[in-house]
Amino acid sequence: MTTVRQRRVGKGTEAAEDQPSEEADVKPDGKIPSDHTGGKLWNILSITVGGIVAISLGLLTSVYVATLHENDLWFSNIKEVEREISFRTECGLYYSYYKQMIQAASIQQGLHGLVYDNKTESVRTINILERMNVYQEVFLSILYRILPIQQYLEPVYFYIYTLFGLQAVYVIALYVTSWLLSGTWLSGLLAACWYITNRVDTTRVEFTIPLRENWALPFFAVQIAAITYLLRTHLQPVQERLTLVAVFMATFLFSLTWQFNQFMMLIQALALFILDCLDMLPTAKVTWLYIIQISGLLLVCVLQFFNSMILGSLLISFNASVLIARTIQKNLKMGGLLNRLGKLFLHVLLVLCLTLLINKFIKKILNLESDEHIFKFLKAKFGFGATRDFDANLYLCEEAFGLLPLNTFSRLSDTLLFYVYVFVLVLMAVAAVIVAFRNLSGSNQVKLMEKMEECTITLKPDAAYSLVHTVLFGCLALSTMRMKYLWTSHMCVFASFGLCSTEVWKLTLKCVHLYTSQRAQVIKYSIPIITLLYISYKFWPGIMDELSELREFYDPDTVELMNWIKSNTPNTAVFAGSMQLLAGVKLCTGRTLTNHPHYEDKNLRERTKQIYQIYAKRSPEDVHRILRSFGTDYVILEDSICYERRHSRGCRLRDLLDVANGHIMDGLGDNEPHLKPSLYPRFCEEIKKNLPSYTTHFTRVFQNKTFHVYKLAKHK
């Protein structure tokens, strides 16, 4: 490792890299190599102990979340249909493809069924491998078929244990990242403990197992650990090449397992861009990271049969624009402060314009509209005009896509994580501003500042990256609650690194004129140990109580519905309903669907809006015509949607449909001036009255306290 110290030439980080550094040869355990045998043995012992602790904590985390899952559902004791129902919404859809591959007569037939799928969307044949990120289900199903474990382990357990096992990889990666940043494995221990004690805000794997982010985030954490190591200076060429390979593999696996990969990596690319512009990272390594992001995403694009949404991603356009802009502005990092700021302004403007032009050109050529709902949602969310768009409002009204609740910070503060995080963040941000100003200043200013003690403030490249990474992902989490898991896990790493960092305590003690080397070392180890003891004392009893609390899965109405469908409808029957419920219908019964929760397709979004007219104010003739146009044989109505009270007025599904259809909403409250009363009553309410105008088209064939199933008449 090295530090970004006072520049003696125009170039900042690159020049510093060529000079010897006091910390150039510091090992991960924080000890400087010595020819003395005792020193080497101590280093080996420290690394060995740190590695054992990392692996142990990873495995304990896996066992912990697996036990919570078992205790919450009594998963080992419930029926197969109940296990499958527990995979709610899109989780059930993804798991259904794993089940489909397991039950196929051969691997080849299973793959053929995914590439030419006509059961996920009725009257359409789609390529599941192109549309969805399910290669992990394919790989896992093939692995299960070829391994001699069928007699000992059920397919569902092989699946969930793999996900829980990835949590071990996740925790180990966080541990290693913190260790690399601070130089001591005590920091990794603290990061892992914070991750576990803040489980409510760092992961949701125990109750949303097949969710794409639970596959992807462990690989993202591995990628960040590899980048942290890559940004250390004085790496041997072989070490650098191997690290680049590790970064590429982690980036590829992250991209392959989550459809939102491009947006997360765009934020990462922005972090690299900011730091490169401020001369805080070596340009050559940043270039390699840009290329790795592009190549990893393009490889995924090939595997997903040239998915147009990937080709039209902002990430590819942005990275390409940065590389092009660099070739145009070759002397970007030369000159005085004002000169550099002027060049940077033009550089940012050029990159922004090129990104928009390239992205617009690609989308025009490919006629790409798959991700337009995301930009409509962002436009409405950040106040750039109200929208009547159904898809955008559907996202806006979901709590997961709202602002991060304030009670999140109170929970994070209970473990001291948030307090430590803010302390380290402020200190590192001040240091970053000073270093950035110094890097952008000309040589004359540098010579004058060299005489001042304040110029000893340094910021290592890996620490600088970690700082900007946590700031950008923090902004994302604050604006969208669902994305908080990307921030809170790195918050554990960043806070623990700061608490165990010599540089942080050195800067703090110098500010109060109390710095000595010995005092900094004592604080560096004593404060983290005290924090660990506090966390253990306060939260260990709660964790034990949580592990001893036993519950059981209970959803008799949904179980009854699934059993009725399997017993009383043909295998070729087509079902319409809410996209969340239909994912479970596909998994539990194998019936054909009209729509589903994987929303990244324009045709599917339009289809879903049409299907949802069953909850709007439409005539029975209109609803029947719409449903039959998608080949529907049965429609499932849910009282929880028809009479919804979970959302406030204006955010209920029926309200969104009324506004999209130009109708006045139900209940007391204001309506927009352009809305008019509907000529028809609400379909889902009126159909239950068995009026002749409805029974002509729909016949009720099943009902319980929650669901009503109607069979559609097949008029010629």
From TrEMBL:
- What topology in the membrane does the UniProt record assign? Multi-pass membrane protein
Q: Where in the cell is it found?
A: Membrane
Q: What Pfam family does this protein match (any one)?
A: Dpy19
Q: CDD domains annotated for this entry?
A: Dpy19L3
* UniProt-annotated stretches for the region Disordered: 1-34
| Biased composition regions of type Basic and acidic residues, renumbered to the chain | 24-34
Give the keywords, sorted. Answer: Glycosyltransferase, Membrane, Transferase, Transmembrane, Transmembrane helix
Cellular component, GO annotation: nuclear inner membrane
Could you tell me the superkingdom of the organism this chain comes from? Eukaryota
Question: Matching InterPro entries, A to Z?
Answer: Dpy-19/Dpy-19-like (IPR018732), Dpy19L3 (IPR047465)
Stretches of Basic residues bias are at 1-10
> What are the GO MF terms of this UniProt record?
mannosyltransferase activity
Q: Which residues cross the membrane?
A: 41-66, 179-197, 217-235, 242-260, 266-284, 296-324, 344-362, 416-437
Q: Which family does it belong to?
A: Belongs to the dpy-19 family.
PANTHER family linked: C-MANNOSYLTRANSFERASE DPY19L3-RELATED (PTHR31488:SF4), DPY-19-LIKE 1, LIKE (H. SAPIENS) (PTHR31488)
Descriptive protein name = D19L3 mannosyltransferase
Question: Organism, per UniProt?
Answer: Onychorhynchus coronatus (Royal flycatcher)
